[in-house]
């Protein structure tokens, strides 16, 4: 045994020495390279690039009352999951043409493929997860100018707000405000739509307008709700969706490279202050019963928002910075529309259904609804040498206050968190605490708040 250990120790010392020799001989430029990019011309203006993102969650959740996990009642759950695992492949292949692809999976934890999340009769399969999020080709009309770009394909180019098309590798908080991805996995594919669009930057104005071909709700992978007195997405008819977003940029311009995606925080690298306004509209998108159950009433989808975004250094010498967002969202899905959602829900069922609504178990809360939402977030980047070579910290807070027609009173969801930026967004740990309400249904169909629950999440993100 001692001889075997001696051999391993000797081998290890040789490997370490060889690695040190290799590192010392490696060119400085190569050792500092932090992107996978292949230049197609000498200047690098034509290129192809690959990125990888993985976000791992360790989570402790207080379940909503009545929650079950694989038919076993659970007041609390602990789970491990992959919130996002993605790869991007994109490039400016000549002066005018950009191609962009994104492939990956989302919300992968122990109950993926569990039967309750499949349409009746569909076999469960935990291996069926990864899919193309984006597949886009885009034409830049003027060489080296961002005045007008025309594109099409499966894309996240959206209206409504910056958080309807978030760059998830750079977000301030542990997760994005998903309510802003207003039709996510209902009539789109994880917020992506088959669209043609025009986008660009002219002076301080950043704009994007799109015409989208929404998916029928029948293809969402879940059994659609039955036609009833409250609005749900219609099972009959098909109409195009129109959307747009305008940003007025007072200082630095935001990146305009990838189609749609907007940065969460620049970590003090830019001085950004924007005002924004956006909308989404679709004819006869939802339906409900009228004065009698035999009557069917169709309603248009009309969503709009206004917001301000601030992200800038406070002291360039020390590297401190502030990031803030405040937005108002006016959301009209139709009469009393309400949808629960729980991010990577750790529960699989409930013994306490709420007013005919689905997915009310686990960490779910009413995330989407007809009414209004005020959303805000605030973060502060500490000095760059706060932890020496171990990086720095960025605490944050976020609040989402909903006033939905079907809920009596306002509803608040609040989060506090701390980012440990080991290497910026490329390697970071985030600890997040979220506090949310849970509800009971009244005979009228309205919902009343009954109490509150919390969830702790530790996320590790690696991005290159």
Count of DSSP E strands?
Answer: 25
Distance between the amino and carboxyl termini: 42 Å
The helix content is: under 10%
User: Which parts are unreliable, with pLDDT below 50 for 5 consecutive residues or more?
Assistant: 1-30, 116-120
- Please identify, by name, the CATH architecture: Beta Barrel
Shape: globular
Number of helices: 2
As a whole number of angstroms, the C-alpha radius of gyration is 24 Å
Write down the domain tally: 1
Mean pLDDT: 91
Largest sheet: 16 strands, antiparallel, barrel
Structure keywords:
Porin, mainly beta, 2 helices, 464 residues, 16-stranded antiparallel beta barrel, signal, globular
Description of the molecule:
This is Porin. Keywords: Signal. Residues 1-18 form the signal peptide. With 464 residues, the protein is mostly beta strands. The protein contains two helices and 25 strands. The strands form four sheets. The protein has a 16-stranded antiparallel barrel. Strand 7 and strand 8 (149-155) form a beta hairpin. The protein is globular and about 70 Å long. Residues 1-30 and 116-120 have low confidence and may be disordered.
């Amino acid at each position: 045994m001692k001889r075997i250990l001696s051999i391993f120790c000797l081998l290890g010392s040789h490997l370490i020495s060889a690695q040190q020799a290799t590192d010392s001989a490696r060119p400085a430029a190569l050792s500092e390279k932090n992107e996978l990019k292949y230049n197609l011309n000498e200047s690098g203006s034509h290129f192809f690039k690959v990125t990888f993102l993985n976000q791992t969650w360790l989570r402790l959740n207080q379940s909503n009352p009545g929650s079950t996990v694989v038919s076993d009642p659970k007041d609390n759950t602990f789970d491990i999951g992959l919130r996002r695992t993605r790869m991007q492949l994109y490039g400016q292949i000549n002066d005018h043409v950009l191609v962009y692809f994104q492939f990956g999976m989302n919300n992968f934890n122990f109950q993926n493929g569990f039967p309750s999340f499949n349409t009746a009769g569909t076999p469960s399969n935990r291996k069926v997860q990864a899919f193309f999020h984006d597949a886009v080709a885009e034409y830049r009309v003027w060489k080296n100018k961002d005045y007008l770009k025309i594109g099409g394909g499966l894309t996240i180019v959206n209206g409504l707000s910056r958080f309807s098309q978030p760059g998830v590798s750079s977000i301030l908080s542990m997760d994005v405000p998903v309510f802003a991805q207003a039709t996510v996995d209902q009539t789109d594919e994880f917020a992506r739509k088959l669209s043609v669009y025009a986008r660009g930057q002219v002076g301080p104005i950043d704009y994007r307008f799109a015409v989208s071909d929404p998916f029928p709700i029948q293809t969402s992978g879940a059994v659609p709700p039955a036609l009833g007195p409250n609005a749900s997405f219609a099972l009959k008819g098909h109409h195009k969706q129109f959307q747009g977003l305008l940003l007025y940029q007072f200082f630095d311009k935001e990146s305009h490279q990838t189609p749609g995606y907007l940065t969460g925080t620049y970590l003090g690298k830019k001085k950004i202050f924007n005002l924004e306004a956006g909308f989404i509209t679709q004819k006869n998108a939802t339906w409900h019963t009228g004065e009698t159950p035999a009557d069917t009433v169709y309603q248009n989808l009309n969503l709009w928002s206004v917001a301000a975004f601030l992200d800038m250094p406070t002291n360039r010498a020390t590297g401190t910075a502030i990031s803030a967002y405040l937005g108002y969202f006016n959301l009209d899905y139709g009469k009393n529309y309400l949808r629960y959602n729980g991010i990577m829900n750790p529960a699989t069922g409930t013994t306490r259904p709420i007013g005919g609504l689905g997915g009310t178990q686990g960490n779910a809360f009413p995330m989407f609804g007809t009414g209004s939402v005020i959303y805000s977030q605030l973060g502060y980047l500490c000095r760059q040498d706060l932890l020496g070579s171990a990086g720095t910290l960025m605490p944050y807070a976020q609040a989402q206050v909903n006033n939905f027609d079907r809920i009596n009173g306002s509803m608040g969801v609040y989060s506090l968190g701390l980012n440990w930026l080991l290497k910026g967004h490329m390697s970071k740990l985030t600890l997040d605490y979220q506090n949310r309400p849970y509800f009971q249904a009244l005979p009228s169909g309205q919902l009343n708040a009954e109490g509150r629950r919390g969830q702790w999440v530790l996320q590790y993100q690696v991005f290159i």
